[in-house]
Amino acid sequence: MTKILALLALCYAGLASANNEFSDFFNSLEALSADFSQQTYNDSGELLNNTSGYFHFKRPAQFVWQTQTPIQQMLLLTNNELWLIDTELEQASKRTMDDLNNTPLYWLINRPEQLQSIPQRTDNEEGMRWYATPEENQLSFGFKDKKLSALKLTNQLSQKVLIRFSKLKINPALDQDAFALKLGPDFDVIR
Q1: pLDDT class for 9, splitting at 50, 70, 90?
Q2: Is 94 left (phi over 0), alpha (psi -120 to 50) or beta?
Q3: CA distances from 38 to 41, 47, 54, 114, 173 (A)
Q4: What is the reported pLDDT for 20?
Q5: I need a surface site. Which of 80, 165, 169, 185 has the fewest CB within 10 A?
Q6: What is the rounded CA–CA span in Å between residue 85 and residue 189?
Q7: Cis peptide before 60, with omega less than 30 degrees from 0?
Q8: What's the rounded Cα separation, in Å, for the pair 173 and 119?
């Protein structure tokens, strides 16, 4: 009987650990960096575009999402200002912080312990454990080896977006200068 209880306790502990994987990962973060590849599909599953780049994040609210191909664009969060910077067009536009709701960035800025609800484990797919938000435009986080490996979401145009991460670094030393707004003299600034 003791062996059965020990086995049940071990199984429960493993299940509880898996259910807390999302919270454990995001609560342990102060900084994060990775390369990414992003594919966007229409509702028929046809590939619409493919982008790649890198991102850096540092709590409480500093973020760089830099696409390098096919065009160079940057989403920059610094000093509580959100900027979309198009290098090719030499244009920078300030966005409202309200634009962050229901985005992956929202989950980085806020620790799971500060949220009213956290994503719940839904399924295993593509060798990852997935955690999904309860919102209508569901956002899902894919974990592999207890690290964030991918994101899935549906955008405002009902397109499916899949983002895969590589070279993920947890709590890297990031220079404050990495989050500075740097615009050339020829840039048009839209506020």
Answers
A1: very low
A2: beta
A3: 10, 11, 11, 28, 25
A4: 79
A5: 185
A6: 9
A7: yes
A8: 28
Q: How many CB atoms lie within 10 A of CB 163?
A: 21
Q: How many whole angstroms separate alpha carbon 134 and alpha carbon 119?
A: 7
Integer Cα distance of 88 and 135 in angstroms:
35
Which helix (H) or strand (E) element contains residue 157? none
Which two structure tokens, joined as six digits, stand for 130?
């997935």
**Where is 165: in which H helix or E strand?**
strand 160-170
Q: Taking Cα atoms as reference points, which of 174, 124, 130 lies closest to residue 150?
A: 130
Q: Which of 63, 72, 67, 75 is nearest to 33 (CA)?
A: 63
Q: What is the pLDDT of residues 53-70, one digit of tens each?
A: 999 999 888 899 999 999
Is domain 2-190 classified as CATH 3.40.50.300? no
How many other β-carbons are positioned within 10 Å of the β-carbon of residue 131? 23
Tokens of 19: 């259910």
Distances (CA, A) of 91 to 8, 84, 86, 181, 183: 59, 8, 5, 12, 9
